[in-house]
Amino acid sequence: MNLLIGILQGLTAGNLLQTDRGRTFWMPPQGSTGASSVDNVFDLIFWISMFFFALIVIVMVVFVFRYRARGRELDSKPGVPKHNFRLELAWTIIPLLIVIGIFYVGLRGFLDMAVPPANAYEVQVTAQRWKWLFTYPNGYVDENLHVPVGRPIQLVMTSEDVIHSFFVPDFRLKMDVVPGRYSKTWFEAKNPGQHQIFCTEYCGTGHSDMLASVVVHEPGGFERWLEDAADFIENLPPAEAGQMLYQQRGCAQCHSVDGRAGIGPTLKGIFGQTHPMQDGSSVTVDEDYIRESILDPQAKVVAGYQPVMPTFQGKLKDKEITVIIAYIKSLTDSGGEQEEG
Ligand SMILES: [Cu+2]
């Protein structure tokens, strides 16, 4: 038993396979320090399966020719063994040891992935249909996950609505994001660069658009980026800051700015228009109505739409709502401005 574990450990943790691998037939390049442990378990199981596949097929083919029943000869032959106790023990115990070994290396990798190092940098992840939001310790929220290179990053994740799953193939990182609870995971990116984030739990119409990037910054670059990014409301004209929020906070997932209706009505040119509501009343779109739509979306539901807009109460500050209003206004002032979501 110890010997077997030793061999498996040697195979999976030893220097032989612990190389910095690029893209392989099965896997994208390894972008995080934890990726190799996942790949090693995959390789181990793959080669064990290949070995037994080959062995069983070869033995089967040999037996088909060698022991094929010629007529009824087999039935009548005396002394044909019904079973072989030793053989049965062998084919029970050997696979049992193999699966215990696989369990051991898998569990070890799982525990490493589940327990973040104490000095990890924490980022809050919020999943909502159909957008990822990343909240940094200074309160800044971005639609992409920016991280420093070579530092463990802990993600504390929750969902606003349904179950999503956070998946970064390059990091071999996949964790469900569940409403009403926090799931945690961590990684350490090896090199500066970009990596794709997917949602890998089917969550409705926009599931396949639920994309984002991990942006890994050079040493020092992350701190600079975060400082600049967090000041965008001060640094940009209001309408542009509002457009960033429209993108970053997921309004674009439901509202177009080019006139097309989506899950929600378009925001193009709505300022000053009069819209019919579901209850038969009608409302003129002004600052207060937009503010109410954002904080209490179900207070007045636009006719012809489902009341599915989430509230942004507590999630958008007053000055953020103000610049969003400025942005929505600008979609009217400029006449036919075509800004795609
Ligand atoms: Cu999702």
How would you portray this structure in words?
The strands form 3 sheets. A 5-stranded mixed beta sheet has the order 3-2-1-5-8, with no helix packed on it. The chain has a 5-stranded mixed beta sheet with strand order 4-10-9-6-7. Strands 11-12 form a two-stranded antiparallel sheet. Helix content is 38%, strand content 18%. The chain has helices at residues 2-13, 35-66, 73-76, 85-114, 221-230, 232-235, 238-248, 287-295, 318-333, and strands at 121-128, 131-135, 141-142, 145-148, 153-159, 164-168, 173-177, 183-187, 193-199, 212-217, 274-276, 282-284. The chain is α+β, with helices and mostly antiparallel strands. The protein folds into 3 domains: 2-114, Helix Hairpins (Orthogonal Bundle); 121-230, Immunoglobulin-like (Sandwich), CATH 2.60.40; 233-333, Orthogonal Bundle (Cytochrome Bc1 Complex, Chain D, domain 2), CATH 1.10.760.10. Helix 1 (2-13) packs across helix 2 and helix 1 crosses helix 4. Strand 2 (131-135) and strand 3 (141-142) form a beta hairpin. Bound molecules: copper (II) ion. Residues 127, 164, 199, 201, 203, 207, 210 line the site of copper (II) ion. Copper (II) ion is lined by residues 127, 164, 199, 201, 203, 207, 210.
